[in-house]
Amino acid sequence: MKKILLLFLVILANYTFAQDLAYTRKTLNTLTSPPLWGRGYTKNGMGVAADFIEKEFLKMKLKPIQQVFSFPVNTFPGAMDLTLNGKKLIAGRDFIVAQASKGLKAKGLLVQKDSAHFINEAERLILTLQPKLTWSVAKKVEGYTEILIKKDVSAQKPQNFEIDIENQFIPEFKASNIYATVKGTKRSDSIIVLTAHYDHLGGMGAKTYFPGANDNASGVSLLLSLAKFYAKNPPPYTIAFICFGAEEAGLIGSKYFTENPLLELTKIRFLLNLDLVGTGEAGATVVNATVYPKEFDLLNKVNAKGNYLVKINPRGKAANSDHYFFSEKGVPAFFLYTQGGITAYHDIDDKAETLPFTVYERLFRLLIGFNKELMAGDR
Predict the structure, then answer these.
(1) Residues 249-291: pLDDT tens digits?
(2) In the chain, ranges of CATH 3.40.630.10 domains
(3) Whole-number Å distance between alpha carbons of 10 and 114
(4) Residues near 312 by Cβ (< 8 Å), separated by ≥ 6?
(5) Within a 10 A sphere around the Cβ of 313, how many other Cβ atoms?
(6) Which residue from 97, 209, 236, 359 puts its CA 20 to 30 A from 134's CA?
(7) What's 93's DSSP letter?
């Protein structure tokens, strides 16, 4: 009878995690789909993403809050056309527009300045050849237009061009953080915080968008799966979930939250920031591991006991994701990201179908186990 019960529990646990993985995959596919348009600054992509996350929290019977803030941003909502040496290039695949560029409609000849740069002074146009195209976000507009062209697009050096690119500078672009909690059953004034940024780069023109699967639909999908778990299984401590906007524009959402917190920062026992967690074949790295060695040792002990990840690499302090401004306020925090698998980053190839989620179940269990040990250690 005991063996049958044990077998039943094992089957039930595997079924539960299979459901979690299916939910995570479905969430990832939604977050990277065309209607959310790269969760960025055109076609209301970031706003649609924020509303989707809010609805997911509501399905879990949580009470989400959207914390609105604004900042300036340069966007590219319309024309995105470039012909070089008579050949029409494909936006995102063959070229991208440097994020602080002004719009330009012109044609003419190019003068070579060096092996990588070609210019037209009259139109204040710069063409730069580079091996890989990665995009970003700018909060200002420069007085020139720069086009980054993939080096292997043409065997001929750029000589003549025809360009039509539209930019729109938005002085006060509105974005939001989404915040929700599961109240603790015993020590509700002690809080563990799970965070992930949901924004990405959005679109470049009317036809090209950046899906941002690993960065960071993966983190949001995992966070929502954890929220679903804790909503059904409330722990002794309160668990807070924060999905930040505008991380790609310079950690703006998390900075705003720490300056206008929706919870008392001094009550946070620990914060785990999830960013780029869609792979894992080569393990993971933890930023702030050397700052909080006791918690890093605890994480490794949980990992070793469960044999979850092949290794967890320690890293020191870094201002490279949304944990940073919490750390600056004295909140103990880790930023965890996985390694191995795809190398797509800030480009059009960071798609949902490329993410293996190789260690999703093990990472899920690792985080649940780590949080459990944090709460047990404070009894």
Answers:
(1) 999 999 999 999 999 999 999 999 999 999 999 999 999 999 9
(2) 15-73+171-377
(3) 64
(4) 283, 284, 285, 286, 289, 296, 299, 300, 303
(5) 12
(6) 359
(7) T
Cβ contacts of residue 149 below 8 Å, gap of 6+?
84, 89, 94, 95, 127, 128, 129, 130, 158
Average per-residue pLDDT for the chain: 94
Read off the pLDDT band of 19 (50, 70, 90). low
- Which superfamily, per CATH, for 15-73+171-377? Zn peptidases (3.40.630.10)
In this prediction, residue 326 has a pLDDT band, given cuts at 50, 70 and 90, of very high
In terms of DSSP H, where are the helices of 129-217?
Answer: none
Distance separating alpha carbons of residues 135 and 148, to the nearest angstrom? 10
**Using CA atoms, how far apart are residues 32 and 212, in angstroms rounded to an integer?**
6
The two structure tokens encoding residue 308: 């979850």
pLDDT digits (tens, 9 = 90+) for 26-74: 999 999 999 999 999 999 999 999 999 999 999 999 999 999 999 999 9
- 354 by Cβ neighbours in 10 Å (0-12 / 13-18 / 19+) ranks as middle
